[in-house]
Structure formats: C-alpha cells, structure tokens
Write a structure and sequence with these properties.
Immunoglobulin-like; 8-stranded parallel barrel; 6-stranded antiparallel beta sheet
Length: 653
C-alpha cells in the first residue's frame, strides 16, 4: 500500500495549461503501441499509459481518487493500458495497481507498481515511494536553448557526484548546493561537467549505479526542476553538462520493474529484462532485454527526454561492454540498440557528446557503424593504469616504456576518441579485490601512491602533479575528478562517499588549484602560444631511460606558437647544472609552465620569476635540428615550452 501524503514543496510543480505545452510533452516521447507512455499533463487533465502485456487489468490509484479502485485503465493493442483523468494535476502521487489472474509463481495476483516512466517520486524511502505527476514545461529557463558546445579537442571534463560534491550540512548534497560551487569549477577553466547518475537509486547518496527508475530524477537532490536549474546554471557559466546513464542493468532490490505485470520465465525478471540464464545476469543486477521494441523505445525516448526537457549536452554510457557482452558471448540486441542510440543522437541532436565506458578489446565502441562499430564519439581509456604504474614506481629511473606507447594511443585512428585521466570515481574508490586494488584503485591518486602520509609528503604531491600534467598535455579528451584540483587524498567510498571538505582543501591547497587552472589554460591555448596541445599529433622524441626523463612534442598546425614541448622528470633527481634538449625550431623558447613553482606548493623548490626564456644552439640533438639547455630541472617536475607566435601567417588554433 502506498503512502498517501506528499510534500508538495518538493514536487514544486504547477498545472500546465495551453495546447502548445501539451503538444510539447507529447513530442518528448513516442510509445511503441498506443502513444506516449507515463503521465502526460494536458489541457483536459492528465493521461496515463503503461505497458503491461500480461496483466488482466490495471487500475490507476492516486491522490486524485483517494487511492481507490474507481479508475480502471482501458486495454489497448500492444499490451498497453490507458486512462485520462480530468481532475488529476501536477504534484499528485499515484501508482498502478496491476492484476494478473494467472501470475508466474511466486508472484501474487495483484501488485502496486510505480510508473517506469516516472519523472519524479515522492520523498520517502525508495521501496515505499509513489510516482508523482510532473509537468516538464513548468520550469522557466534562464538561459536560451542555444548553448555552444566545444568540439572534442576543446573538451575538458570535470567529473562530479552531486550527493557529495558540495554537502556542507551532510550528504546527500543537492543540485542547489552544487550550483553554489559552480563558480569554482568555471574558474578552474574546464569546459564540461560530467555528473554521475542522478536517476532514482537505492539510496540518495550512493554512487548512482543501482537504478530504480531510470528517468526519474533523484528527489533528494532536488528532482527534475532542481536538475534543470543545475543545467541552467552550468550553461550560464559556459559549462556543458554530460549525464552518466545506466542502461546495462537495474537494481537487484526495491525494483518495481522486476516482474512488472507478474509474469516471468525461468526465474527471470519479466517483461523488461532477459529471462534466460545466458543473458539475464550482470555483475550488478538484471540486464534489460534489448531485443524488445518496448525496451528499446524506453531507452531511446529516455535519452530524448534528457536532451529536450533537461537540455543536457551529452551522455556517458556506463559499462557498454557489460551491455553487449555477457557470459555466453554477444548479448542479443545490445549492439544494435547502442548503434541506434548514437545514430539517433547524432541525427536529432547534432553536436551532443556520446561517451562510452566499454573496455572491450574489440574497440568497437568508437568504430564507425559502417565498419561494424557503435559510433560513440569517444570512450574511456586505460590511460590511468599505465600512468599510475609509472608514477608509483620507486625506481631511481622509472620505466617509461608503457607510457610512451600510451601517449600515442588512438581509437579508430583518432586520439580524441579516448578520454584520458588519472583520477575518476572508479580509481578513487574503495578497493574491490582481487583486481581493483592499490595502486589502481583504493583512494585518490596521492593516497594510492603513498598510504602513510600522502597529504603532507611533498614527493607524493609532486608525483600526483605529474599525473595531472600527463592528463592535460597528452592527446585525448582530458578528465579530472572532483577534488583532484585541490589535492584530495581521501577515498571516494563505495557505495556512500563522504562530502568533500572544501574549506580544508582550499585552505591547504589553493596553489594546487592554481596549478590545474594554469595547465587547463595551456591545454585550451588561451594564451595563444600552445596551439599544439589542441592537435592530435604527439612525438615522444626524447627518452632518457637512465635518468627517468621524457619529452614529447605536440603539434596541430605547426610553427611558432603551435609546437609545444612537454618535458617530464619522473625521477627523484634534480638536474641543477643544465639539461640539454633537442627542439624543432631555432630561436627563443619560453617556459610556459613549471610544476615545481613554490606558488603551487610552498615546499616545492623553484621560486616564481624563474620561468626562463632560452635561445637555441644550432646543433642537432634528439633527432631535432636545434637544442637548448634548460638551467635546472627539478625532481618529479614538468615543464611546458613553446615559442611566441609570429605575425607571418602561422595560425594558432
């Protein structure tokens, strides 16, 4: 039996009037058989449609009829049931009461069910909550629907978890609280935020990967209007919003979609899920049945809803590899559905981002569809694992072989088809033996390299900054994880992470924030002299294996102001009497960035003002026609060098 009371202040919804708004909501999705599924607010009331092909009858029960059985729904072709309720309005709670006179044991003959198409539920514990009628046109946008999204080579992502990102009064945090710290992110210089799942979950502050209702926005975060306000605020600050979505599985518990109409086969999950043993299970919960047209439409229309109603700028698809590969091999219908998702977004919403977390060795995620792939724009890479092996090495001269190959990595021939990072929600998470352990997982990077005194050990801080330099200067789409920019050293605990301590982190590590800000500025060529970092070419042309020093050249158009050199010293040794390095062009080269500056950390060793302008020597070195001598190269440090652009036509892009 559902709860019958509801906190209207949380719903924050108003009755929609006007035929235009009604048509807008109808346009937001299209059901496979009878029309729009879910609760649709219109000029004549609210229409309800639900897919329950094995049900004998379905009744709509809610606040508008005192939760009684006075509102039967009419059966339609295709297994849907429909009713129009003239006196229903936005903000009212409801549920479907499903009857099946021949249920699959051990199901009963009747069951209360939340609407799979819910946009909102009421604010009770998930297993005791109701669906809530929500008017998607009620929110008044402050920004125009014309946000300009950067191309992939200018995309710098900041991954965040709403529940713990900014929660000064305790988790879960809210969209409103997250908005309160967006200026910090905007000042950092990133161009997009990627938020972990915000659909209704088993627990409000959990990571979000135990979905209950895939298209209902977590009420404890602020619900649909709170999410729209967050997107609105991001767009006002020039930040794109990428939403993490989970279509590879549903929650094992508290899941009303399981045996929705009281039918199943072989102890499976009924109409929404695979029922056969070969395909039904993932490591985390039941897998959706991608062969069913109704499931495919549910997923595709859910994406459309996020893009139209919430104006998100793209998606990160969680665990597409698990979607399409199961214990028995290829999962039926999964690859076709994923191709449909990418093609639909490309055709109907050009410019939006489609990011996969795939990690399958066939690399089909970013392979074009006409070559048998899935056509995602970019995908998460294993850059972090190669980087952390290098950064956590205790050798006097760490082995740079793997990192050399990783720097030149490409998917489908394109470096921007890979997302690169050394921190993410997965790497900063609680250990998950036997494979996901230190140094690859278990805490933020500093604590993965040093389990004793990472917060205060200067050598650990320097190595972590080298990780950020690699992320923001290598070819690819760089991503930071919340707190990385202020040297967080704790654990992003699974399943309920603690709130970031912004006061403490900003007080102690304001200089580290500046370091990341400076790196991002260089990465996006905001100073006009590091255009090569926007290009796809990389040449690891200097590798001093005996000293643990590496240099690579980044280019886009070529020439002064474009060609950018990144020099990294992974060793604990300082080269205080000069370090010679080949360069591609004669003239003066400027040190644009030095990770060892004391302005970044008072315990670093290079004083501000030591940034150097160096004139080349006309002698070949490292396969380059010229060389220069860097006066000093500090231990565990990185330099970024380039020439000033000239007014002779060299373009800086």
């Amino acid at each position: 039996m559902p709860r019958v009371s509801f906190r209207h202040s949380v719903a924050g919804a108003r009755l929609l009037t006007g035929a235009a708004a009604y048509l807008l909501t109808l346009f937001a999705s299209a059901a496979p058989a009878g029309g729009t599924l879910g609760a649709v607010v219109g000029p004549d009331g609210v229409s309800f449609r639900v897919w329950a092909p094995n049900a004998t009858a379905v009744h709509l029960r809610g606040m508008f009829n005192n939760w009684d059985l006075s509102t039967p729904m009419a059966a339609e072709t295709g297994g849907t049931f429909f009713v129009l309720v003239p006196n229903a309005r936005a903000g009212q709670a409801y549920k479907y009461f499903v009857t099946n006179t021949s249920p699959t044991p051990p199901n009963a003959t009747t069951a209360w069910r939340r609407d799979p198409e819910s946009r909102l539920i009421d604010p009770y514990i998930p297993q005791d909550s109701n669906s809530v009628i929500h008017d998607p046109a009620a929110y008044q946008w402050a920004t125009p629907d014309s946000f300009s999204r950067p191309p992939l080579n200018r995309l710098v992502i900041y991954e965040m978890h709403i529940g713990s990102f900014n929660a000064p009064t305790g988790t879960p945090g809210t969209f409103s609280q997250a908005i309160g710290r967006l200026d910090h992110i905007a000042a950092l210089g990133v161009t997009a935020v990627q938020i972990m799942p915000v659909h209704e979950n088993v627990g409000a502050n959990r990571w979000g990967y135990d979905p209950l209702l895939l298209h209902a926005i977590e009420v404890e975060y602020g619900g649909p209007d709170g999410f729209k306000a967050f997107v609105d605020a991001c767009h006002a600050r020039g930040l794109a919003v990428i939403l993490d979505v989970v279509y590879n599985h549903a929650s094992l518990t508290q899941n009303d979609m399981w045996n929705f109409d009281l039918w199943s086969q072989d102890t499976g999950g009924g109409i929404w899920f695979f029922n056969d043993a070969a395909n039904r299970d993932t490591p985390w919960g039941p897998r959706f049945d991608y062969r069913r047209e109704e499931v495919r439409t549910f997923i595709l229309d859910g994406l459309r809803r996020f893009l139209r109603e919430y104006r998100v700028d793209g998606f990160r698809f969680d665990a597409t590899g698990i979607m399409r590969v199961g214990s028995a091999g290829a999962v039926p219908g999964a690859a076709a559905l994923l191709r449909d998702c990418t093609s639909m977004v490309t055709e109907e919403f050009p410019g939006r981002y489609m990011i996969a977390e795939d990690f399958q060795t066939d690399y089909l995620a970013t392979t074009p569809a006409d070559s048998g792939g899935l056509s995602f724009d970019t995908e998460w890479s294993d850059f972090a694992y190669d980087a952390v092996r290098l950064l956590s090495s205790t050798a006097a001269a760490p082995d740079m072989t793997e990192m050399t190959a990783t720097l030149g990595g490409r998917f489908s021939g394109d470096p921007f088809k890979r997302v690169i990072f050394v921190e993410s929600h997965d790497t900063a998470a609680t250990e998950d033996p036997p494979w996901q352990t230190f140094p690859y997982r278990g805490a933020y990077l500093p604590a993965r390299m040093n389990r004793v005194d990472a917060a205060t050990k200067v050598d650990t801080c320097k190595r972590a900054m080298l990780g950020s330099v690699l992320t923001l200067t290598a070819p690819g789409v760089p991503m930071l994880f919340m707190g990385q920019e202020v040297y967080a050293t704790g654990t992003f605990a699974f399943p309920n992470p603690p709130a970031l301590n912004w006061t403490g982190l900003l007080t102690a590590n304001a200089g580290i924030h500046t370091l990341h800000k400076d790196l991002i500025s260089l990465r996006l060529n905001r100073g006009g002299a590091t255009g090569g970092l926007l290009g796809g070419d990389v040449n690891v042309y200097h590798r001093n294996s005996g000293a643990g020093v590496m240099a690579y050249l980044r280019t886009a158009a070529g020439g002064p102001g474009d060609e950018t050199i990144v020099l990294l010293n992974f060793s604990a040794s300082t080269f205080g009497f000069g370090y010679q390095l080949g360069v591609p062009r004669a003239g003066v080269w400027h040190v644009r960035f030095n990770s060892d500056l004391t302005t970044y950390n008072a315990q670093f060793t290079t004083a501000p003002g030591s940034e150097t302008s160096i004139t080349t020597v006309n002698t070949p070195r490292d396969g380059m026609p010229q060389y220069l001598t860097i006066p000093a190269l500090a231990a565990r440090s990185a330099l970024v060098l380039s020439q000033d652009p000239v007014a002779d036509g060299w373009a800086v892009r």
